[in-house]
Specification:
- This protein is mostly helical.
- It has helices at 5-19, 26-33, 37-40, 47-60, 70-86, 91-100, 107-118, 125-151, 163-183.
- It contains 9 helices and no strands.
């Protein structure tokens, strides 16, 4: 059977969610699809390109906010990003890595940049967008690692409080508001 690129990405997301990033290989994906791993290179030049496509697919599945003032949009974009990456096993690590390497995952950055520009942050907007992404990805990777370690019995901790994310995000956004007001 001949697969289209979208079919391969769809199955790769499923493999990621079932087995995790460490066990997502071209060999495993090929076996899942019933093809030789070399057949996947028809759609992707290398594994990094495949990982970028998976990250973009995870992000495209999210319902991104488009309304509200800039502060509301920034908060909603960050919350949506957190939920999107936590919806898949190792999703936070994958999307953060792909974005850091500049291979994909630009959608949240672009949305944050637009909201911050709408808020009048000007030349501060790119740094603010990256800072927000660092916060979201760092928190999500920490949260996902904690949940997976607890599920595997490696730690005995209870799941962490979700409010922790919102409080921290509020601190970062409040800091942006203070800096923005001081620059006026």
């Amino acid at each position: 059977m001949r697969y289209h690129r979208a079919d391969v990405v769809e199955r790769a997301v499923e493999v990621l969610d079932r087995h995790g990033l460490a066990d997502l290989s071209m060999r495993r994906l090929g076996a899942e699809l019933g093809v030789q791993p070399s057949a996947l290179y028809h759609h992707f030049t290398d594994k990094q390109t495949l990982l970028a496509a998976i990250a973009d697919e995870i992000l495209q599945r999210a319902a991104w906010p488009t309304s509200g003032d800039w502060i509301e949009r920034v908060g909603a974009i960050c919350a949506t990003l957190r939920d999107a990456v936590l919806a898949y096993r190792d999703g936070a690590e994958l999307v953060a890595t792909v974005q850091a390497f500049g291979l994909g995952g630009r959608q949240p950055y672009d949305l944050l940049l637009a909201a911050l520009h709408d808020g009048g942050l000007g030349d501060l907007a790119p740094v603010a967008a990256r800072t927000l992404l660092h916060y979201v990805y760092g928190h999500a990777v920490d949260e996902q690692t904690h949940l997976q370690a607890a599920a595997a019995g490696a730690i005995a901790d209870e799941p962490r409080e979700v409010e922790d994310f919102g409080v921290g995000l509020g601190i970062v956004i409040a800091g942006l508001q203070v800096v923005h007001a001081a620059r006026r």
